[in-house]
Write a structure and sequence with these properties.
366 residues, alpha/beta, Rossmann fold, Zinc Finger, Delta Prime, domain 3, 3 domains, six-stranded parallel β-sheet, 18 helices, 59% helix
């Protein structure tokens, strides 16, 4: 059964189910859904909890299946949480998830929660996902679009008893807030919690002014640096340029931006080298501690990147390191930010390129 995030509270009030699947790429909303399920479960006697993270195709599912079948007549109820950051449980995982889904139908002593990233149409049609959907509750946490973000912030402010000034001044404050967090809901949530501490609702009945919000909302560029990394790997040049301009305007340190880009290039090169030595991609990613959304991005872009191209990018990153420290490099901009633009767009263009077909690779080598 599919429900939306807004329907979860009502569903939990009607009765806790034995199986929930939460999927989406919004960490804050996914965590809040998980917290709501946990709180309801605890109130109904689920006092034990175990968590399992599926790391690659070689994950041992026997421990998860054993946890679900280890209850005795006198044992407490338990919650089993299964996190699959890649969204791909593998062949063994597919079988195990179908078994767990069917078992949930007749076992109210075990609550199983499966946590997944955003699922595409193909993944949703897989047998294991269909089983989760058929035997339990499936909840997709949808991203908040940029145009809806000011209203989302206003609702979150209201949840802690705060509001902005009425009229155009208040709308300006919400737009400013939305621009600062750049779509990062977790950052927005943290800033709203801070505003609630700085400006108690009973002391500001008329709403927060623009000046109060501007002075209190932190520069959340530290989050934007990581968002920049994701945008580069996703092959989004327009957004990459906009984010670099924003980071520069907000006074972010050039060395931090360079470190983020260079670390991605180094990680891509390490994984590519490991694959060249015969390691399967999932193993190479795990060995290099590439998880979550970045894992999916690496899986997508690595077929597009040759070892030679990554070696050239490493050389470029080395040159930009010197530029941001005041050195000059032939054929490179003198400005650190311009050099960062060039480096980021070099990597971005390679990530956006289509992977070469076998025929094309053969033609190039001929």
């Amino acid at each position: 059964m599919q429900i939306s995030a807004g329907q979860l509270a009502n569903q939990l009030q009607r009765g806790l189910k034995s199986l929930y699947t939460v999927h989406g790429d919004e960490p804050l909303l996914q965590q809040e859904a998980l917290d709501a399920i946990r709180a309801t479960a605890r109130s109904q006697g689920y006092s034990e909890r175990s968590s399992h993270t599926v790391s690659g195709a070689h994950f041992d599912w026997s421990a998860v299946l054993a946890a679900g079948g280890s209850m005795s007549l006198f044992a407490d109820k338990q919650i089993i949480e299964i996190r699959i950051p890649s969204g791909k449980p593998g062949k063994d995982g597919s079988v195990a998830l179908q078994q767990l889904a069917e078992a949930a139908r007749d076992n109210d002593a075990v609550l199983t929660v499966v946590l997944l990233p955003r699922m595409d149409k193909t993944s949703k049609s897989a047998a294991w996902f269909s089983a989760l959907e058929s035997f339990g509750i499936t909840l997709e946490v949808q991203p908040v679009e940029r145009g809806a973000l000011p209203q989302w912030i206003a609702q979150r402010l209201a949840s802690v008893g705060l509001k902005v000034e009425p009229g155009e001044a208040g709308q300006r404050s919400l737009q400013f807030f939305a621009d600062r967090v750049e779509g990062n809901l977790l950052a927005a949530h943290q800033e709203i919690q801070k505003l609630a501490l700085l400006f108690p609702a009973d002391q500001h009945p008329g709403g927060l002014s623009f000046e109060q919000i501007e002075s209190a909302v932190l520069n959340v560029a530290r989050y934007d640096v990581f968002k920049l990394s994701e945008s580069v790997l996703a092959g989004q040049p327009t957004r990459v340029q906009r984010m670099l301009d924003g980071l520069q305007a907000e006074g972010e340190a050039e060395v931090l931006v360079h470190y983020t880009l260079a670390e991605d290039i180094r990680a891509l090169k390490r994984v590519k080298d490991a694959m060249g030595q015969g390691r399967p991609l999932p193993m190479a990613l795990r060995e290099n501690r590439i998880w979550g959304n970045k894992e999916r991005l690496f899986e997508r872009v690595l077929p597009r990147l040759s070892s030679a191209a990554l070696a050239e990018l490493l050389q470029s990153a080395h040159k930009v390191d010197g530029i941001v420290k005041g050195l000059k490099q032939p054929d490179w901009p003198v400005s650190g930010w311009q050099a960062l633009h060039k480096l980021a767009l070099q990597l971005c263009s390679l990530c956006a390129a289509q992977p070469a077909t076998p025929a094309a690779r053969h033609a190039r080598s001929a």
